[in-house]
Design brief:
With about 300 residues, the chain is an alpha/beta fold. The protein contains eleven helices and 14 strands. β6 and β7 form a beta hairpin. The relative contact order is 0.13. The chain binds NADP nicotinamide-adenine-dinucleotide phosphate (NAP). NADP nicotinamide-adenine-dinucleotide phosphate (NAP) binds next to β14 and α10.
Length: about 300
């Protein structure tokens, strides 16, 4: 499995991360099989969040792998989790980046994952009431206690990251952002600079370039979806041309159409680390093949255009 460096951490990680948002849809036996497949493929980077399955995904993960504080397996894994979305009775009641909330969340995550440290902690969604100095204090506290090694953000733009960096003096390692070929304003805004077309705006404040400039690893989430959880474009009637081109390009590289969509992300020189969401071991195996393939420029642009993205 091809590896990439995560930000400036020195951590070498597989080019694909395994997202665990739907792990609780699996039985214990299915989860064991799925996670074993991931590890056999060299996919040892797992993305969690405290809210996935209201904590059940983290609990099942630890159970299925037989994790414990003395487990030898732990150091072979790279565990990332997220906090900051506050829920009550399954409903989101707000975002919360207060120091006490972050510290409490991490303790609960560690307990569920049956570990004493996270490799990475990611702030899930920007809190409107953010006090960056308080977040930095929380990070400092977690780092000093050895509970978290590195920190990142999710769904943040360049200015939000820069604001946090004014107070937190270690480089943010990752920014987890929604990104697929069917949902790629992050990329298309940079192609359409200074044009009056709909794609011209850069509402994210050049987040892609900020991350490249500061060596922050972008982790595309929902790499196979369109809209906001509207479904996957793979095999969708809404994307006939994209599916045709993914099939054609994939055939040339012995990749499935879904793996080709992942190869499209991996072809970007920013060294994205896409987070897969499949819970199907066969799908995961197919997707992992994308890491061994380098699409040509022509193939990359053909897929970009086939998804309905335009070039000026
Ligand atoms: N930071 C954030 O705000 C945020 C938000 C959402 C998600 N995430 C993270 O990103 C991860 C991925 O998100 P996602 O699940 O939306 O990603 P995704 O990989 O785009 O979507 C996965 C879904 O596509 C389906 N699918 C259909 N055909 C497939 C094929 N041929 N190959 C693979 N999958 C196929 C999967 O079903 P099968 O299981 O049947 O394959 C699964 O339901 C999550 O697990 C989570 O860790 C982060």
């Amino acid at each position: 499995m091809k590896t990439i460096q995560i930000g400036k951490t020195g951590l070498a990680a597989p080019a694909l991360a395994v997202g665990c948002m739907r792990l609780n849809r699996l039985s214990r036996t299915e989860a064991e099989r799925f996670l074993k497949t991931a590890l056999d493929l060299g996919l040892n980077f797992f993305d969690h969040a405290d809210i996935y399955g209201h904590g059940d995904c983290e609990t099942l993960f630890a159970e299925a792998l037989g994790l414990s504080l003395s487990s030898d397996l732990r150091e072979k894994l790279i565990l990332q989790s997220k906090c900051g979305i506050e829920q009550r009775d399954g409903n989101t009641i707000g975002y919360n980046f207060s120091k006490s909330y972050i510290l409490r969340s991490v303790d609960a995550i560690l307990k569920r994952l049956k570990t004493d440290y996270l490799d990475l902690l990611v702030l899930h969604r920007p809190d409107a009431l953010l006090d960056p100095a308080e977040v930095a204090e929380a990070f400092q506290n977690l780092k000093k206690a050895g509970k978290v090694h590195y920190f990142g953000v999710s769904n943040q733009n360049a200015a939000q990251m820069a604001l946090l960096q004014k107070y937190w003096d270690e480089p943010l390692a990752v920014n987890q952002l929604q990104l697929s070929v069917a949902n790629c304003a992050l990329i298309s805004s940079g192609i359409n600079v200074n044009l009056p077309s709909g794609a011209a705006g850069s509402p994210d404040g050049s987040t892609l370039d900020y991350c490249r400039l500061h060596d922050v690893t972008i982790q595309p989430w929902s790499p196979l979806q369109y809209g906001f959880f509207e479904g996957t474009f793979i095999g969708s009637d809404k994307y006939p041309e994209l599916n045709r081109v993914l099939e054609e390009v994939g055939a040339a590289h012995n990749l499935s159409p879904a793996a080709t969509a992942i190869a499209w992300l991996l072809r970007h020189p920013a060294n994205f680390q896409p987070i897969t969401g499949t819970m199907n071991p066969t799908h995961l195996r197919y997707l992992s093949a994308a890491a061994d393939v380098q699409l040509s420029r022509e193939e990359w642009y053909a897929i970009y255009i086939a998804a309905g993205n335009t070039l000026p």
